[in-house]
Every structure is written in structure tokens, then in C-alpha cells.
Give the backbone structure.
Amino acid sequence: MAQDAKVPTEIAQTLDRGLQVLEFLGSSVNGFTATEVAQQIGVHRSIAARLLATLANRKFATRLADGRYVIGTGLFSLARMVARDLVSVATPMLRDATERVVATSVLHVADGDEVVTVLSIEPPSANFRVGMRVGARGPLDLAAHGIAILAGRPSMLGERPEVAQARERGYAATTGEVVPGYTGLSAPVYVGGEATASVGLVIPASRGVEVPELAVEVVKLAQALSVANG
């Protein structure tokens, strides 16, 4: 257990425990229960539960429907303060892609079993507007942007067939799962070696013949962003 090591007297024990919890949560995309966290850091379950509740309140942890906890978007936001800002890095790339291929470009970040829109750029010259609102949330396993993130992670029992297909070809493609009549293409973005985000393009379904060409564009964007963010 983490508490076996001697703790220097000048550090704040509660803060230290909270950081240990974050490190433990970050070791698995599947998350851990309060009991598992308590066993890992060597405290009573009630203490672990309070630490997790505090972290969840600050969005550094997210409680899933089955009671497990995973890393939350608050930690991602904090990390952006000491690393390059994913959104800032992505903005010029996505703006360029939007203008070149006349498609809505989007950037999404995973938050537990949900996915959050953090950037959406509409083509100014197009006669359509997808309207993906920044801050909007949805299930992680719904639509190309969430499926792409799952495809960048190890396979899991019960995952959608589309996830395995996306993992094999390097990108996800779905039609009508968020906006009727529109097709989304997304590829996973790796931050710190883990698939925590996705970048994609959204086009009218009537432009389906362009999917193979646009998929290449999406994969290139994802690779560039993954390199830029280490």
C-alpha cells in the first residue's frame, strides 16, 4: 500500500492522499471503486469515499453509473496550464481543415463515460450549420467522436462493433447518431500516451462519397495533435 512509505512531517497528509488517489485513478481507464482506492492508499473506506467525493466535486474525478471513479476533465484542464493547451494547438489546424474541405471540424474530450465538445468550427462559406455546441455532453459510446476515443483504447467486453471496426481502420464513421442527415468522421487523439480526445469532421450525409478522402484528413489531424501534445 502507498501508506507504507514514511511520510515527511512537513507535507499535508490529506493533500498527499488526494494526489495518491489521482495517480491511482490515472492508472486505468476502467476506474476503481472507493474500496479499491482505500486498499491502494491504505486508509479506511470512508476516508477514501470523502477524498473521491471532494475530487468529483472539483471535477478532478468522475463517478460512473456503476460506482467506479475515473479521472475527470478538471484534471485535464489543470494539465493544460502546465502543458500546451490542446484547444489552442488544435484551433488553427481545425480552422485550416474546415476551410479546405468545407466541413465542420470538432474536437472532443472524454470525461468518464461521457464525451464533451471542446471546440467546433463551422465553414463560413457553407450553406449548412451543424451546431455542435461547445460544452455539450453525450455518451462516450455514441457517434463517431466518442467511438474514436474508445477505439484508441484496449478492447473491452461488450463494446459496440463500430468500436472494433474503428480500431482496425484508424477512424470512426457514423451517420445520424447526433444530428439527423449528417455523417461524422473522427480519429483518436493521444495525450500523454492515452486516447483522451478525438478530432473529426462533420458533413451532410449526401457527401458520403467523400468519406474515404476526408478520413485521411481526419487521421492526419489526429496524428498531428497527438504529436503536438506528447
